Amino acid sequence: MKTSNRPTLRAAACILLAALSTVAHLSGQAQTPAATPTTAAGAGAGVPAPRITLVENFASPQLGNSRSLRIYLPPGYAQHPQQRYPVLYMHDGQNLFDARTAAYGVEWGIDETMDRLIASGQIRPAIVVGIDNTPDRFPEYTPCCDPKYGGGKIDAYARFIVDTVKPYVDSHWRTLSGREDTAIMGSSLGGIASVYIAQHYPQVFSRAGGVSSSFWWNERVMVEHPHAKVPVRFYIDAGTDDDGLEGTEAMRKAMLAQGYKLGEDLYFYADQGGIHNEKSWAARVHLPLTWFFGGAAVK
Question: Is 115 helix (H, G, I), strand (E, B) or coil?
């Protein structure tokens, strides 16, 4: 089997962690009644203050479960009540804003990076919606079906985002709700989820980012049988240290064959020394953020 067709060592550890989390989650479910979404601003529950809003117990009728949403509001949101903002939807919300809730104790630092890029004028102010994962992370983030790991709930998860999360966000915050101002991004399995969802919902998303994407999934089906070209700007990357770079390069080649053009609707980046973890993703997340929301070329 080729290197690009198998998960990294860290991905294998994630599989074990997901399985253990499932047992704990199911045990807790038996004692926890269903709850309606509630919003809480400020610190608490591992959420940094003051511009991260936590929406707990947010239900998914498509998947039959619930999770938290974590909403980043850009600087000046409260001071400019007439202004509306583009929105970036991201997976694995626990890992985005706070090391205390991150699976491996290291966060992406999305809020700090957004604040810095906005303050320097490199990007437009934007809202970021972090969608927490669940013990069903593997099936929810993947198309059917990897011969070893299964999967196959990505279409239901996509409908959850499009039909439930997005309308909720658009009705509770001042968003620019059109496709030109809506992006989606994730890493690892969240990377292929983002690419897949944007390919199937180009009427909703105009930008998508796959960071260290697991293109090995199901014998590289997304590479070997690429989706038809859609009017979406894609960012894909990988590190050079056991991070699936070969698979991401193969995806770049497949997308170029579909008619995408580097620098126009496709951005590819190989991170020298980058590995499959949040520290590496945090170090380069300014690239897709600038690609999505900046006016100048990404450097």
Answer: helix
Tell me what pLDDT residue 45 has: 36
Residue 245 Cα to chain centre, angstroms = 19
φ and ψ at residue 290, rounded to 5 degrees: -70, -35
pLDDT value, residue 51: 85
CA angle at 150 for the pair 147 and 152, rounded to the nearest 5°: 125
Task: Return the ∠ at Cα 214 (arms to 274 and 185), rounded to 5°.
Answer: 80
Q: Write down the pTM of the prediction.
A: 0.85
CA distance 59 to 49: 24
How far apart (Å, rounded) are the C-alpha atoms in residues 45 and 295?
Answer: 36
Locate all alpha helices (DSSP H) within the chain, ordered by sequence.
Answer: 9-29, 110-119, 137-140, 154-159, 166-172, 189-200, 217-224, 245-257, 278-284, 286-293
Side-chain half-sphere CA neighbours of 261 within 13 A = 3
Contact present, 46 and 100 (Cβ < 8 Å): yes
The whole-number mean pLDDT for each consecutive block of 10 residues of the chain, a chain of 299 residues, reads 42 44 35 35 41 96 98 96 97 96 92 96 98 97 94 97 98 98 98 98 98 96 96 98 96 98 98 96 97 68
Angle, CA of 148, 249 and 87, to the nearest 5°? 85
CA-nearest of 51, 50, 98 to 71 is 51
The reported pLDDT for the residue numbered 7 is 53
How many of the other CB atoms lie within 10 Å of CB of 115? 16
* CATH class given for the domain over 3-293: alpha beta
Which residue, among 33, 95, 104, has the nearest Cα to 68 in the 3D structure? 95
* Tokens 């380069």, residue located: 284
CA 104 to chain centre: 17
What is the spatial distance between Cα 210 and Cα 195, in angstroms, rounded to a whole number? 6
